[in-house]
């Protein structure tokens, strides 16, 4: 027989645990994280509509978490040291679909003179929607992760995560060069069109060299 007090306390603990689980599972589970606030942040940063296109509605959240629980929150500032290792990605996706993730820096070498941008930092393809995470054995890195390393005196750089829905699973993506120079001037929009990708979610942060 279980006492009412014991039962009540356990129900309360279970409720709190369930609530915590929900917040951990839903990317950017914040009261002010809505399509409207996301779009406003992207617009303020010059990402929407210039880099996303006019039709993007930011109705899906993209959770990005670096080591130590550091979250990317639509335009916060993170240092190169904090973002040296690849992050964990979470998103709201269709379980029957696959996704492509890109990380680009459009501001290479500077936002005023982006002659080398967009710089390709990371591409992961065939991310299963059922897992809703980049950490999957089924996914493939077309471009290995290279963290932000903006040169001195180049000011703030925008680092943009772009999640695309693929038309289908594709094991025949053409390889991409990993060299420093070949990562420059990556036309991600053209690449998305050629491979049939549809923009699903976006998140971004700022970073800069300590000597800027």
From TrEMBL:
<dbReference type="GO" id="GO:0030162">
    <property type="term" value="P:regulation of proteolysis"/>
</dbReference>
<dbReference type="InterPro" id="IPR035810">
    <property type="entry name" value="PEBP_euk"/>
</dbReference>
<dbReference type="InterPro" id="IPR036610">
    <property type="entry name" value="PEBP-like_sf"/>
</dbReference>
<dbReference type="GO" id="GO:0005543">
    <property type="term" value="F:phospholipid binding"/>
</dbReference>
<dbReference type="GO" id="GO:0030414">
    <property type="term" value="F:peptidase inhibitor activity"/>
</dbReference>
<dbReference type="InterPro" id="IPR008914">
    <property type="entry name" value="PEBP"/>
</dbReference>
<protein>
    <recommendedName>
        <fullName>Phosphatidylethanolamine-binding protein</fullName>
    </recommendedName>
</protein>
<dbReference type="GO" id="GO:0046578">
    <property type="term" value="P:regulation of Ras protein signal transduction"/>
</dbReference>
<keyword id="KW-0732">Signal</keyword>
<feature type="signal peptide">
    <location>
        <begin position="1"/>
        <end position="31"/>
    </location>
</feature>
<dbReference type="Pfam" id="PF01161">
    <property type="entry name" value="PBP"/>
</dbReference>
């Amino acid at each position: 027989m279980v006492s009412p007090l014991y039962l009540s306390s356990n129900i309360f603990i279970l409720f709190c645990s369930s609530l915590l689980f929900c917040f951990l599972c839903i990317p950017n589970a914040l009261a002010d994280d809505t399509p409207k606030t996301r779009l406003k942040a992207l617009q303020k940063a010059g990402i929407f509509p210039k880099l996303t296109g006019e039709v993007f509605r930011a109705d899906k959240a993209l959770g990005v978490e670096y080591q130590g629980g550091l979250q990317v929150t639509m335009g916060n500032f993170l240092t190169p040291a904090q973002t040296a290792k690849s992050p964990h990605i979470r998103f709201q996706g269709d379980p029957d679909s696959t996704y492509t993730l890109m990380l680009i820096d459009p501001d290479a070498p500077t936002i005023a003179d982006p002659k080398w941008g967009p710089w390709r930092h990371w591409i992961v393809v065939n991310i299963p929607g059922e897992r809703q995470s980049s950490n999957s054995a089924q996914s493939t890195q077309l471009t290995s992760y290279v963290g932000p390393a903006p040169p001195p005196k180049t000011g703030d750089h925008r680092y943009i995560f772009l999640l695309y829905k693929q038309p289908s699973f594709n094991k025949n993506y053409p390889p991409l060069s990993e060299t420093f120079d070949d990562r420059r001037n990556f036309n991600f929009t053209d690449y998305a069109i050629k491979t049939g990708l549809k923009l699903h979610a976006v998140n971004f942060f700022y970073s800069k060299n300590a000597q800027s």
